[in-house]
């Protein structure tokens, strides 16, 4: 048998021995949503199971209306711009920004993700269960968490930051008021050159935080516009954090939605 033939069974056996942690929240009508992306997720049952004539088989199907940035999702690089310019110097003009979406940096350009994941559990490092509403996680907080956990963020990693806010997901008002990252935290992360960063809150940033230098959503400017680093929002990190695992295989598959500014995802953490 070839080397390739031996490798696949070994890979499958290794996967069978992994613990799998789901990092996506369920999608449902009424789930928390950033106000700019209202109504979020809407589902209507279009075809119903009905007894018609002598037929035995019936069929049902529905219609999903969903904002790209609702639920657990990844931001594409076309999601942010500064002075009508996107990451890499791509200028926004009618050829790039069309009525049917973007011709550059859309969600279809995000590759499948199979990379080292690192969980930075900030509340655990600070000795609390959940960070205070509106708390701005600083670069100092992230550095302390890295030291306490004994892990180091490396280039190409997927860095997931826990604030504890995910435990409030069933109650939209306190969830939307949860903690998030400060600008210096985003710069600390960008300096490590990760592939993506994610958090268990609605916007990675704190939506109401207006940075003196960059304005609203400064982390989006630093990570997406300046550094070309993807952001994943609305992660469910409670079970993974409770397991005590801070390093894992992070799996995340964005949908091939051409020209859109973000994609729903079902991310996983695989721990040997």
UniProtKB/TrEMBL annotation:
Pfam families recorded: Cyclase
Organism for this UniProt entry: Nocardioides aquiterrae
Sorted alphabetically, which InterPro entries does this protein's record hold? KFase/CYL, KFase_sf
Q: What is this protein called?
A: Cyclase family protein
